Task: inverse folding
């Protein structure tokens, strides 16, 4: 490896102080009936409690979501009230890249001494998204009613096309084979079920109860309800919605939340159950593909990141990506000359769903857990965002700095 300097030398992610809900497919759980922001904050409180991290340790919050929710105007101050403390913070969004951007923003906050323990909380509810009425100067109508998140998915103002059309266009540009795309889908499902059977997902996903205002149980989120068993025969029989794109070869809308902490090296050692594990952010970048070619943007971002750092895929221990279309993975394999079987080994958003805000946060948590299992190494996280945006970042999981120290919680 040739890149030694981190853009974020002070910031660390304390191992094991994270967690994510399962991601139920939209309208399949009680999450469709709750305020997702309040649920996310309550769940973060619950997860931190399970991780034995006191909320009193937090001094800043970075929130990330993409779909309007009641009280969103009040963002971090409103959700901080769940902790019973007046924690400052703010909200950001960048479509599907939100989960990673929130983590990068938290690292920048630590670097700028804006907070020593920054909580990252990302969430979204695609179920029953609200109606919004907007003035629209670029249309004949005086106002335009956007009554569902699907209408956003179906129309890119820059190209006038739906997101699914970007997958078909990219498949044609790179001359993809439908059979290989179906093989990627089938393999991704097998990776997910293997991770689930091994107990890996139990270390990442936390079962969460949903309570009404009276504190009565409305439901329990304890599985990714959009995941199903699938066969190559079934995939092969699906109708193409666009070139190499079928109902099986794209993700599904979902609801959920995910949280992690970003802090200093010293505080990470105090908060983590395994202080010998050192997790730092090494480098990050963004790029844009040509209009209407969103699925190739993540690969372009990785190429740009490697050009900046000198790394190659041979240096990467764990590669995780947001792949709303299986087409994304095949294009990555071609452009990076890398076996797609070596990506997303513990599951991915193609399978477990896409709530948008927390998608890349969950991918990052899974990637860091996998790297710890492997004894450390570089974790590459990348994905696309609405339109033609690609984002990528490299994290390093090591144990050199504090090797051999005892868990503070057992002393």
Result:
């Amino acid at each position: 490896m040739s890149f030694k300097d981190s853009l974020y030398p002070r910031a660390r992610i304390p191992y094991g102080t994270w967690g994510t809900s399962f991601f139920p497919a939209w309208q399949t759980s009680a999450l469709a009936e709750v305020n997702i922001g309040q649920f996310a904050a309550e769940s973060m409180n619950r997860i931190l409690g399970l991780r034995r991290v006191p909320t009193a340790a937090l001094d800043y919050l970075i929130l990330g979501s993409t779909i309007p929710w009641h009280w969103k105007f009040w963002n971090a101050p409103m959700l901080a009230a769940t902790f019973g403390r007046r924690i400052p913070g703010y909200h950001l969004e960048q479509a599907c890249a939100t989960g990673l951007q929130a983590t990068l923003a938290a690292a920048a906050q630590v670097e700028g001494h804006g907070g020593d323990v920054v909580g990252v909380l990302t969430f979204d509810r695609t179920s029953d998204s609200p109606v919004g009425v907007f003035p629209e100067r670029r249309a004949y109508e005086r106002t335009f009613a956007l009554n569902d998140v699907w209408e956003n998915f179906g129309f890119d103002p820059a190209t006038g096309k739906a997101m699914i059309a970007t997958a078909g266009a990219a498949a044609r540009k790179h001359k993809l084979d439908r059979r290989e795309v179906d093989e990627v889908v089938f393999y991704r499902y097998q990776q997910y079920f293997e991770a689930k059977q091994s107990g890996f997902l139990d270390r990442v996903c936390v079962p969460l109860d949903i309570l009404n205002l009276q504190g009565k149980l409305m439901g329990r989120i304890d599985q990714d309800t959009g995941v199903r068993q699938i066969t190559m025969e079934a995939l092969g029989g699906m109708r193409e919605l666009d070139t190499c794109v079928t109902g099986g070869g794209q993700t599904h809308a979902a609801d959920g939340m995910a949280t992690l902490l970003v802090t200093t090296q010293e505080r990470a050692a105090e908060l983590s159950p395994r202080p010998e594990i050192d997790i730092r952010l090494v480098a990050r970048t963004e790029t844009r593909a040509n209009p209407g070619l969103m699925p190739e943007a993540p690969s372009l971002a990785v190429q740009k990141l490697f050009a900046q750092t000198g790394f190659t895929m041979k240096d990467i221990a764990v590669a995780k990506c947001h792949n709303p279309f299986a087409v994304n993975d095949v294009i990555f394999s071609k452009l990076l000359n890398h076996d797609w079987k070596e990506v997303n080994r513990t599951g991915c958003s193609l399978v477990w769903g896409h709530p948008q805000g927390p998608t890349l946060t969950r991918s990052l948590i899974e990637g860091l857990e996998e790297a710890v299992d492997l004894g450390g190494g570089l974790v590459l996280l990348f994905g696309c965002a609405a339109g033609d945006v690609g984002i990528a970042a490299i994290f390093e999981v090591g144990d050199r700095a504090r090797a051999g120290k005892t868990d503070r919680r057992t002393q």
Residues 178-198 form the longest helix (21 residues). The chain has a mean pLDDT of 90.
